[in-house]
Design brief:
This protein is of the alpha/beta class. The protein is built from 9 helices and 18 strands. The strands form 4 sheets. An 8-stranded parallel β-barrel has the order 2-5-6-7-8-9-10-11, surrounded by 5 helices. A 4-stranded antiparallel sheet has the order 1-12-13-16, with no helix packed on it. Strands 15-14-17-18 form a 4-stranded antiparallel sheet, with no helix packed on it.
Length: 459
Amino acid sequence: MNKLFFVISITLITIKLQGQCFLTGADLSYVNEIVKEGGSYYDELGNEVEPFEYYANQGTKVVRLRLWHTPENNMSHCGNSISTNSLADMLDAAVKVKQHGMQLILSIHYSDYFADPGKQKTPKAWEGLTHSILLDSISNYTRQVLEKLHAQNTLADIVSIGNETTWGFIDESSNTNGWDWNQDADKFNTAFDVIDVFNETYNTQIKKAIHITEETADWMAQEFASNGVTNFDIIGVSYYPFFSPSTSLSQLGEMIKDLSSNYAKELMIFETGFAWTNNYSDSYNNFITNNGNTISFPMTQQGQKDFLIELSKVVLQNNGTGVIYWEPAWISSSMCDLWGQGSSYENVSMFDTESQKALSSFDFFEFCNLTSYNQETPSYEINIYPNPIISSELKIEIRDIDTAWELYNLEGKILLQDEFDNVGTLKTIELSSLSPGVYYLRIQSQTSELNFIKKLLIH
């Protein structure tokens, strides 16, 4: 066996594991359709890659997928019915997510197409229903979606009831006309109750989430609470510098800390995006053209990476638990949506607009490994080899530190753990019981400040 050594100078990494690392993730809802319509993805060296596998191998902890009720009720810009993000499409993507060891956030829009602050249109199948029958439809639909995921062993870890519900939910009008809490509270609570019953029935632990935007977060959290919609675990927030041009990262951090404290909920950034260029790959106009007025990072590839690392630090330091990048794989292809063909977001994606090679912002998914909060900590020398692991053995050599180690998967489950027998000796870990995939090795000192996490890839 060839010994490929990795000599690592380590500083203290302060993270809130809570059974898993800080969640860094990607919304990959369009990937199936992009690949179907001729889109190809390449790593930084130009080798073609399978996108779900590549995101997992780069350290992505969680993938967000959206679900539309009957997207076929919409005709695309190219004149064809839309099938993207249908139940069948979502289920297929969920298989790929779980096959590669990532967690799943499911965003149920309860609409036939995009639900967002301006529109929360009722699915065509539910138009004209009485309130009681609509609640039955919400209940049956939510349960059926969960049953389908459970049947193929790809259950969501988090389910978001609605998408950016800041001015109504499941609304009869094309443009949402505001809240009617006498009815809207029933809609949310009906869906949350379904998840509770499902968890009890199947002994699962699906977390429940709402999803709002940064501009409305303080007001909306209070509205949910005062109208009896409290049976959820997570407040998901959208934060794009383009759409929140006057909100600094420090202001965002204060908001996250206040919401977490005031409402005793977990806080996550469900959507974000940062334009690294204004170049384009097709005739579909890009809808994000700048990064607001308060973000100091330049519109470059390095600026995109630095923004994501800093955003993650701010979220973590203010008691948030994760950051999800919206559609970082939306490259140009022959895909048609309602408004155009190609991509209106390739300048915000994580791939070069010309070569389709992965950008350095993929390092964001390794946030737990990159971040050092205490630069004064002395460094230590550790040898870890080989990596990637092509046999069944991993070797670790640590000098002058009394340490223990644990190996866990992307979902935060500890699979193996032990202590080093002596200081300064070589430790061999037998890994033949593990399947190929991405894992994390944590090395922690019993007597010093060392707390280190390293990503491992087993072939």
